[in-house]
Amino acid sequence: MKIARCLLSLLAAALFATQAVGVAAAQDYPTKQITLVVPFTPAGSVDTVGRLVAQKLSERLGKPVIIENRPGAGSATGTIQVAKSAPDGYTLLLAPSGTYSINPTLYKQLSYDPLKDLTPVALLTHDPLLLVVNKSLPVHSVADLIKLAKEKPGQLSFASPGAGTSLHLLGELLKATAGIQMVHVPYRGGAPAMQDLIAGQVQLMFSDPASAVPQAIAGKVRALGVSSATRLPVAPDIPTMAEAGLPGFAVVSWQGISAPAGTPRPIIDRLNRELRAAMSLPDVQKALIARGQVPIVTPPPAEVASFMKAESERWAKIVRQAGLAGSL
């Protein structure tokens, strides 16, 4: 009994010491530059959000927050870098939903587990996506598109910025929901996919509003529906997919920030508070809304973790429904 009590006392002392170190680290944090890893190329939608957030977070913390672009392997390259970094709050990950919730089901072998190797810090945006078609395609609604696809099974092609991306999976979800056959054409990014859509090399795609809305306004593509449950403020005339005839079709991508697993809770809480304040700024919200994104005033880390877990289960179901589980 004495030995057991002694062991318990030692464990309690160790736990107290660890918590004390964490509190002390949070009080001093940050004392140096913070790196925000974006696992995609510069100038894309994820990178744009990352640079906006990095600027505001730097202003609030009083230390530089720099962007490090580490694209590759469907965002796995940059994610693994963060997962293996020291859990001290100086290396963070900004990535969309696919990194957290699609890749674990999509890839046969993934050398990170987002639920085990990363600690959720904050949610930043919900990102509705637009279904757009080539302007010469004789359709003016989602119902028209479905009718044409059924008349010409397998003859329509839809583009995406890459196999396994959320935009690819939305195309697969459209196929499954509407009962149509289409051919997927993956590209190395959204820009070349949009270029080929405009040129008529492919007939349709889901795209982020920042890319699609200007092209639709210019008459280069035709927008048929938005994937979210509500219409976009920047394009209020475009119906939701549900309004356009596909009840229950309401899916958005999202972006969040995580830290390596084991990062002290006081540091996670500090970052969460500062990001919540940054995302509440009117100029931040205005900039994101103008891009067709929905800014999120992030909930506490525990709620972010619950959200990410639920989203992982939801997207895993979509990946399996598309027959893509373990395909990459």
Specify the CATH homologous superfamily of the largest domain: Bordetella uptake gene, domain 1
Count of individual domains? 2
Just name the CATH architecture of the largest domain: 3-Layer(aba) Sandwich
Main structural class = alpha/beta
Nearest-integer average pLDDT: 90
Please give the radius of gyration in angstroms. 22 Å
Largest sheet: 6 strands, mixed
Q: What's the CATH C level of the largest domain?
A: Alpha Beta
What is the string of SSEs from the N terminus onward? Answer: HEHEHEHHEEHEHEHEHEEHHEH
Strand order of the largest sheet: 2-1-3-10-4-11
Rounded to the nearest angstrom, the distance between the terminal CA atoms is: 54 Å
CATH topology of the largest domain: D-Maltodextrin-Binding Protein, domain 2
Number of helices: 12
| Share in helix | 40-55%
Strand content: 15-25%
Short characterization:
The chain has 328 residues and is an alpha/beta fold.
SSE diagram, text form:
Elements: H1 2-28, E1 34-38, H2 45-61, E2 65-69, H3 76-83, E3 91-96, H4 97-106, H5 114-117, E4 118-127, E5 130-134, H6 142-151, E6 157-160, H7 166-178, E7 183-186, H8 190-199, E8 204-207, H9 209-217, E9 221-226, E10 253-260, H10 265-279, H11 282-290, E11 294-295, H12 301-321
Parallel strand pairs: 1-2, 1-3, 6-7, 6-8
Antiparallel strand pairs: 3-10, 4-10, 4-11, 5-8, 5-9
